[in-house]
């Protein structure tokens, strides 16, 4: 096709196609009405003019499926890399591509000529877009993919089977736009628009350590900043950032994931810290002790001593002069295996009766009576060694510790 100076275009019809063009060897046409007025041999090209009809007929003979791609879309991985790399700052390290592929993904554009039945010159074109699976496309995505500026694909289109092509062409009726009662929609052509979609894997390297991040999306959107590479997510803490660094132990993380241990001051991952149940301090686990009663993890300095059993416990389980264990003693029979073990180890305890017991993570707390006296005994659960021994009156709760050198009178 040739454009002449006066605004008229001239189409030289190939010999083998002349039959489709009513035998014409050249067609002169113009889009502008005033240009046409000067020359009767020039056709004004409209949606219902002969040239348009001939062209559509010819297209339909060819199977009415054509392949095209947005003009100027990114076609090489190199066009994406700066957008990928610039997003990240890697302290003392670098980011590079672990892999990136660009694939052509089809979206289908169905083009209809909509004729008005009452007005023969009233014609318009309508495009309907759908995925090959028939899902509609969001208008903003279509404009971001620049589907309004297409160029036909020269040569072989991306890999597609004849069966797919036939199926896509056949669904034209289902996709037809809704028109008013005196209009008819006629499918002219199905354009397969091939848009570049990328899959990439970024590698972050600091010293000997590596971390990676995969993501994918439309190449055009990445280049146009319609999408951003995702922030790196610290695998231990879940914190996200575009800044990466490495810990002393070789773990790659982000600054937002780092916190100071409130006991040692060491900079560690916040997920490595544990909260002291009593003080609320965030510290490394090695600084905490487990409360034998509540099993809370507590700083030793925040523990309190139960005035009754003399165990160090979390303040939360102490009420008055008794911890949770001392408050929940229950009667125990002499043939209970735990009692049998205690009596086996300390036969002299046999003269006491009305045994009650509470069990903590580390100890047995026992009370018993004999005549008018009461006994309070705390034993290490494993060794059955006494950690505390006290006596008192049978009915009171005032206990007087038995000096260590007198314990043998009660035990063994
Ligand atoms: Zn206690």
Structural summary, described in words:
- This protein is α+β, with helices and mostly antiparallel strands and 412 residues long.
- The protein folds into four domains: 1-61, no CATH class; 63-230, no CATH class; 274-323, no CATH class; 329-409, no CATH class.
- The protein has nine helices and 31 strands.
- The strands form ten sheets. Strands 5, 7, 8, 9, 10 and 11 form a six-stranded mixed sheet that branches.
- Strand 30 and strand 31 form a beta hairpin.
- It starts with a strand and ends in an 11-residue tail after the last strand.
- The mean pLDDT is 91.
- The structure holds zinc ion.
- Zinc ion is lined by residues 306, 308-309, 311, 322-323, 325-326.
List keywords for this structure.
binds zinc ion; alpha+beta; rod-shaped; 412 residues; 4 domains; 6-stranded antiparallel sheet; 6-stranded mixed sheet; 9 helices
Topology readout:
Layout: E1 2-3, E2 9-12, E3 26-30, H1 33-37, E4 43-44, H2 50-61, E5 65-70, H3 78-86, E6 89-90, E7 93-116, E8 123-130, H4 139-144, E9 150-152, H5 162-170, H6 172-175, E10 183-206, E11 209-218, H7 219-223, E12 232-233, E13 240-241, E14 243-246, E15 252-253, E16 258-260, E17 267-269, E18 274-275, E19 282-283, E20 289-290, E21 297-298, E22 304-305, E23 312-313, E24 318-319, E25 322-323, H8 324-327, E26 330-331, H9 337-345, E27 353-359, E28 363-370, E29 373-380, E30 386-393, E31 399-401
Parallel strand pairs: 3-4, 5-10, 6-14
Antiparallel strand pairs: 1-2, 2-3, 5-9, 7-8, 7-10, 10-11, 12-13, 14-15, 16-17, 18-19, 20-21, 22-23, 24-25, 26-27, 27-28, 28-29, 29-30, 30-31
The structure holds zinc ion.
Zinc ion (ZN) is lined by residues 306, 308-309, 311, 322-323, 325-326.
